[in-house]
Amino acid sequence: MERIGDAVRSELGRFGTARPMADLVELWPQVVGDTIAANAWPARLSRDGVLHVNTSSSAWAFELGHLESEIRARLGKQAPARFRFAPGPLPDLAPTASERPQEALPEPTDEQAELARGWAAEIGSEELRKTVEKAARASLARAAVGRSVW
Cα(59)–Cα(33) distance, rounded to whole angstroms? Predict the structure, then answer.
């Protein structure tokens, strides 16, 4: 099955800078990290090879201007000829794992708790034994309702 991203890139490739821009947008969060990606995002790639990056403030634009060579090195072959950082609108990014609401964990049954206690019983360290028992209870409870621990 073909990924839709590949089809979109192929189609955008017909419009000059759109295909390289799609590649840059895909790489951006991995290259700059979550903090910078939340405060700076590629806006457009001009025909002369300048990547215009919108930032959340002029302070971010200033700081990223000093990091331009490092960002270029991390982008490797995908790096544009130059960058231009300036305040501008940013996309709403998906929340990070710590920002997502936590769903309630299923409670283990008495049998699952007893089984977990048995698995951890021979561990000498009380702290480690309690941690292993807790993890085993959670794993058993989630498995029983068909949900992955991860």
Answer: 18
